[in-house]
Structure formats: C-alpha cells, structure tokens
Amino acid sequence: LALSSRSWVLYALAGSLHTTPLSYTALDAGAPFSSEHCAEGIVGIAGNTLRIASIDRLGDAFNSESLPLRYTPRRLAHHSVSGHIVVIESDHNALSADEKVQLYEAAGIPPPLPAGTVLPEDDEADGMLMESVVGVPRGGPGKWASCIRVVDPRARQTLSVIELADNEAAVSLAAVPLRERGGETFIIVGTVKDMNLHPRTISAGFIHVYQFADGNTTLNLVHKTQVEDVPSAIAPFGGRVLVGVGNRLRIYEMGAKKLLRKAEAKGFPTMIQSLHVISSQRIVVGDLAESFHFVRYKRSDNSLSIFADDTAPRHLTAACALDANSLAGADKFGNIFVCRLPHEVSDDFNDAALMAATAGREDLALNGAPSKTEEVVQFHVGEIVTSLQKASLGPGCAEVILYTTLFGGIGALLPLRSREDVETLTALEMHLRQEAPPLCGREQLFFRSAYFPVKGCVDGDYLTTYNSLPPNDQRTIAEELDRTPPEVSKKLEEIAARIL
C-alpha cells in the first residue's frame, strides 16, 4: 500500500508488477490487517474515522456498482441543481409493467419478481419466481415498453419512475434551462409512438416537457408537443431547445401549452443523431450516416445554415466535442476518429459570401458544403462504440477521451503532448510488429486499419505486450530505441499513470 494524494496498491499478477489507484477515500495512514472475517485486509485512518477494507478483485482498474433497471437504458441527463440523474429506458418487443401484471392475472399465474430484486429469506420466498430465470412475455414487433427514471447517484437508489403509455418509447433526453421560466431547468424527452424498425415508421413523435417537483425527486408533465418525425436528439441552446426531428434541425421556445418553433434548417442527409452546441452561433450536427455538419446560427434573421461537413460518410454511433473546431466520433463499424475544421474556415460570413462560395458547385446536389473538415486521428477499435466523453479520471490525471463499447469494454485515448513521446512510442510499436507479431498471425497494422488507414494514434494495448516478451527480445527492441528495458517499461508505466 502506498499513500500520497491518492491511495495506491502494488501487487504481482500474471508475472508482472502492477500499480493501481484505489477507488476509495484518501487514507492518511494504513497498515496490513488480518482476521477471521478478513484474511487479507487493510486498516487505515481517513480523517477522524478508522476504516477496514479488503481488495476483492485484483486486476480490475475500476470499481463499479450497479442499479437494476426495468428496460435498456438509452440516455441520461444530469440535473445540476439537485445532483440527480434522469435516465430514459426503452425496449422493443416488450410489454410494460402494467401489461405484464394484467397478463399474469388473466392466466392465473403469480407475477415473477423483476430483475435485480432480492428474494426474501422467510417462507414467503417459496414459489416465487424471478424474471431473470423464467423470462418475460414478448409483446411482438412494433410493441414498446419505456419509462423515465429519477436516480440519486449518491444514495444509489431510484426516487421515482414514470411509465410511458400508448406504446410510446423514449429516444432522446436533455436537461435544458429555459429563459422563459427564469432559467429553471426542465427535462425534455423525445418519444415516438408505434415505431417499427425495418423500415422505420412511426405514427407520431412527441417532445415531453417535465418539471421537477417534491424536492427534485419526481417529474411532473408540463405539456407535450407533437412532431412529424423521430425527435432523435435534444440539446440546450441559449435558453431555448435545440431539437433534431428526423433530418431537420429546429429551435423551440417554451410556450404555455406547447413548444413554439422559432427556426428550422433542412437538408441533412438522413437523420440527426447528435447535437453539439459549440457557441452561440456555431452548432455541430452528427448525422446518422453522413458524419458531422457544421451549422451557423445567424441571430439577426434567426436562420440556420450549413457551412462545413466531413469528407467521409460515417454511420455515427457516438460523438463528443473536443474544442471549437475538433470533434471525436465513432461509427458502427468499430472505428474512432477525430476530425478538425481548418482554422482558415470561419462561420462569420454573410449570405452573399455563402452563395458565391457555392455557386456552380455540383456537390450541393450530393449534400456537400463549401468547406470540409480534416481527419487527424483514425483508429479501429474492433467493437461498436456506444459512448464518447472527454473526461479526467482522477485528480492530477490528464484529460482523455473515454469510450465504452457494446460488449462492455471501457477504453481511453490519451493525447501525447511531447514529440519525444510520439517518436518513442511510434518506434516501439513498429519494432513490436517486427519482433513480436501476434500469435494468431493477424497483422496488427491491418487490424487497426480495417476500414480506414490508421492515423495519428498508437496502439496502447499492443505496447503493453512488451513487458511479457522474453528478456532477449526486450533487450533487442530497447537497443533499437537507444534505451534499456527498464527505461522502456518505465515509460509505459508513466503513460498509463497519466490516465488513472
């Protein structure tokens, strides 16, 4: 155990030494502890409290706690005033909670307990069934079950749940401060009714506006606005609501009985997947199949116009803004990329300049914009990325691009800020390809370039195989880098320490 500004544990696993920060309160002092109930533990002092803890799983970089949900979580939003989290859940081919109860009552069967429920230990547990064991009845194609949940992350408990009726499914969510209500934060939820997946058809779309009540523990429906297509993305925009409705971008204001449409932009290729507000006049729109589009908002005439887009058609699954000109995205083929708008491209132009730049251009028929982004990073992960977020994982740690995958993986992309690190790690990766090719025969370079050539990124997972090489191979590679094997291992540990 090592104590500094953070608590660290050093241990040997699989023949190598690991240093991992503890996901625990910072300790002032610590010592080994052993008893009948805790064979290998740690006793420590944190402030004026005495704590006894044990490490359950060596090798896990993260400590996770789970909260059972009814359906598949789709989006979440953070309420900055109360600190609570709002989660929307929806499942296709499923029945709602009330419909399942009615079905069980009609069949004369006691309803099984939902997933995550703990069976009682008394005699009442006899004959009780669990949904995770016996399964749940299916609703059929075009049938949806969905709910909106308010969660207290500190207490790790659910405060309230709103079940959506009439075969509505929640698809988008945002916490939006509205200037018409004095900056009060409302929860905006986009839903669809009777949606079929292939082909995608709906009978109606709605934008629900909810207000917090009862000490920010429940949600009250203020009103809902009907739209003609899927409200697939929602974002706050200067006290108003920015909504992607199908392939249209709209700005809404709060009204007494419904949201009032104030501006609209058409011409996006397929369907808006994500919205990123960069400034009061720049918006980045992520299209479902055509990557990013940069949009300028002109306040004087309340208009929206596209002035730049990406060069490659990307089927986006996740995206996040890095700065005013750069965005990170992931597509459904398992690629992560970063595209950047050149500095000479500006959204500060008038309509005459836009018309002059686009006059006679044939690419407008192909949804082309007068300016294009540049690709600076391209990397094939191998799994579908479900979320991207720029974050720091601890005090003193560098900012990374954190991503999660469909199979439950968590990864990070770390920016290298010195040319020495870039040259060293790039050379190490090149020598590893030559001296230690993968056992299965698959070329690492070909794998990371499965769809696009890898660019601007070093494979950190592949670099960690250096420590598992035979000593002679380690020495050979280190000599090519004008270093010793301990120096190379230390460099890899320093890079990993910047993340955790």
UniProtKB/TrEMBL annotation:
<feature type="domain" description="RSE1/DDB1/CPSF1 second beta-propeller">
    <location>
        <begin position="1"/>
        <end position="55"/>
    </location>
</feature>
<dbReference type="GO" id="GO:0005634">
    <property type="term" value="C:nucleus"/>
</dbReference>
<dbReference type="InterPro" id="IPR050358">
    <property type="entry name" value="RSE1/DDB1/CFT1"/>
</dbReference>
<dbReference type="InterPro" id="IPR058543">
    <property type="entry name" value="Beta-prop_RSE1/DDB1/CPSF1_2nd"/>
</dbReference>
<protein>
    <recommendedName>
        <fullName>Splicing factor 3B subunit 3</fullName>
    </recommendedName>
</protein>
<dbReference type="GO" id="GO:0003676">
    <property type="term" value="F:nucleic acid binding"/>
</dbReference>
<feature type="domain" description="RSE1/DDB1/CPSF1 C-terminal">
    <location>
        <begin position="145"/>
        <end position="466"/>
    </location>
</feature>
<dbReference type="Pfam" id="PF03178">
    <property type="entry name" value="CPSF_A"/>
</dbReference>
<dbReference type="Pfam" id="PF23726">
    <property type="entry name" value="Beta-prop_RSE1_2nd"/>
</dbReference>
<dbReference type="InterPro" id="IPR004871">
    <property type="entry name" value="RSE1/DDB1/CPSF1_C"/>
</dbReference>
<dbReference type="InterPro" id="IPR015943">
    <property type="entry name" value="WD40/YVTN_repeat-like_dom_sf"/>
</dbReference>
